[in-house]
């Protein structure tokens, strides 16, 4: 009923909205955490109230979103009722001119424990990292610590691990290969500046020598990316208080990588290297009070938790696929669409978004993110597209011709305007008063005064 009312409302009032896009789906025990993006076209100055309908396992609910700008991101937490290990749903917005982008589908599987691994010698750095990776009260999260030799000998398999926090010298040999495979499969790894020097690099990156701050001075975090990376602002715009970070020791990050945070002397503090589906982060200090106050948690806690959440997403990412993608999980498997969204269905199945069942798996297919971006077509590609049709372009040459015509006509209009202004001024001059004439009036016999 709610969906039908929204469609009727959309016919009466044109709503320039694009549907919410599912960015990520994560299950935490008996809750489903959805990260969404809602975009709109047209005027973004006026706040717009948008009804958003959520369908989950046959139940639906509607809420109102206030979209103040061109786009917004939000996190929805949905309670999961029952003991089903798998489920699906979709989020829909009122209809507009393009019905294909008014819905975003999602699916989920059984709950998984979120585990993290800290690699390093026992001490402050390893203890604080283990605590930041699995704080008290964070249900379903746990962490363990191993020394580098145990990791290198295969004593810590990474198949069920979300994130790795490395405080030792960079890995080499079998340990480096294991970490590389872990990253390519979608895992996350954060490398912190080690106390001991190492001769090996990893992913083309290495640590520079340890630097000490001058007496009574600190290395201060001066700038960081507030829109990307683990130090980005929250969804509600709340910034990370990274300016509180102070360090008396640091190590530079040598090699080609994307820098997302810098010290006050422009040296990198946080760098990113993408490997396959995963990401390696390099942090230029360590959570040890002999090095910095990174252990205070202002920077370490959001950095660690966002790394863990991103790594845990690889276990749920198999339930989300873009339309038309050659998914290895569906190779040779028949699939059946199981959602009941009343949308566009006249296209071929491989071009339709929706929730499909493939054997015992549920996979939600959504339109690719690129379809929400406005693109440009080169002039050379238009001739074959419009072959046999008459069309014309509004180009700079036409604008130049119009400007030349306007320049030629403008002086004539200016002269005519001046002529009319002068004529109007002459017509507005006061007339000279005429003296009244009386035939009987003379100097001796003046006209009678009335």
List its traits:
single chain; 450 residues; alpha+beta; Immunoglobulin-like; Rossmann fold; 2 domains; nine-stranded mixed sheet; four-stranded antiparallel sheet; 7 helices; 21% helix
What's this model, at a glance?
The chain has helices spanning 2-12, 124-133, 148-152, 174-184, 300-316, 379-385, 396-427; strands at residues 17-28, 31-40, 48-56, 59-67, 71-79, 87-92, 103-108, 114-119, 141-146, 161-166, 188-192, 206-212, 219-224, 246-247, 249-254, 258-263, 268-275, 278-283, 320-322, 336-337, 354-358, 361-366.
Order of helices and strands: HEEEEEEEEHEHEHEEEEEEEEHEEEEHH
CATH topology of the largest domain: Rossmann fold
- Low-pLDDT ranges: 1-15
Structural class: alpha+beta
Query: What is the overall shape?
Result: globular
Name the helicity range: 10-25%
CATH class of the largest domain: Alpha Beta
Describe the structure.
- The N terminus is likely disordered.
- The protein contains seven helices and 22 strands.
- The termini are far apart.
- A hairpin with a 2-residue loop joins β1 and β2.
- The chain has two domains: 159 residues, Immunoglobulin-like (Sandwich), CATH 2.60.40; 202 residues, 3-Layer(aba) Sandwich (Rossmann fold).
- The chain is 21% helix and 31% strand.
- The strands form five sheets. The protein has a nine-stranded mixed sheet with strand order 9-8-10-11-18-17-16-13-14, sandwiched between helices.
- The chain has 450 residues and is an alpha+beta fold.
